[in-house]
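Suppose you are handed only these lines of text.
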Amino acid sequence: MAYRWTNDLSREDATPERAFLNRRQIMAAAAAAAGLGAIGGPRGARAATGELDPNEWDEITTYNNYYEFGTGKSDPAQYADALTTSPWSVTIDGLVDRPGEYSFDDIMSKMTTEERIYRFRCVEAWSMVIPWNGFELADLLDMVGVKSSAKYVAFETALRPDEMRGVSFPVLDWPYVEGLRLDEAMHPLTIIATGIYGRDIPNQNGAPLRLVVPWKYGFKSIKSIVRISLVEDQPPTSWNKANAREYGFYSNVNPEVDHPRWSQATERPIGGGIFAGRKETLMFNGYGDDVAALYEGMDLNKYY
Ligand code: MTE
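From them, the structure of the protein bound to MTE can be written out as follows.
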């Protein structure tokens, strides 16, 4: 769990003082409510090295993609409250030693959560910086024991027509599914997020458990997970099924490989204001030092 990665983002620096104080109050309240120690102690006090600051809570929770609740950016914030997230359980099956249905509470009692401030880059060429709370997916996979024959991990989102007004439209082939190669899934940067800014993750962001893979386009970060299966073959993924030419299995952030309909060389930071302008997209979303080795020798134009 004590993975150290080169993070160039910090929370407080460059934040206006009022927002800073506000946020500290929210954090302190959340920490007190959860019976935790001070969140953002050593990490929050870290010296500034970065060019960025996390987005505001309102930006992160009102500009979303969660098509089960509609395709508009504000639909998830408006309609995702209908999703019942407690009780919740995740079926973990396939090539594992201890398959079963694991309750959210059971999982949380065994996992150690921490804060990870990550860049988040959507394939639609907008971006945010999000202070997630979560645990490493590798810890969960270790808990169930991955068999040596497993090569990929498949994920599935809940499908509840009664609670998800968007699934009556055939925008995607429901349920939403995603997948990672096993080494990507086991990478210490890959987390299951359960919170944002020290508070429970809101429904629109994928409560109660959602994947976050910071070097890949946002659509790999599947929300409200109900099934995790260890498999031998590369699993189908929703956007690839919808349009294989536009969305590959890997979907690593890559400024040199354009989407067939738009450039991926730059991105629009959400919340920067109208004068903020676009910024250059970084290879592997800035996490190349940590993950480039996973793709050594692969033609990234072919495996996009
Ligand atoms: N997961 C599900 N189940 N359904 C979705 O529509 N959208 C994806 C991803 N995970 C999506 C999903 C896309 S396109 C993005 S960019 C991110 O969620 C958005 O995450 P956020 O709303 O927390 O920013």
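What can we learn from it? The first helix runs from residue 17 to 34. Helices lie at 17-34, 57-62, 75-79, 104-110, 137-144, 182-186, 238-242, 288-291.
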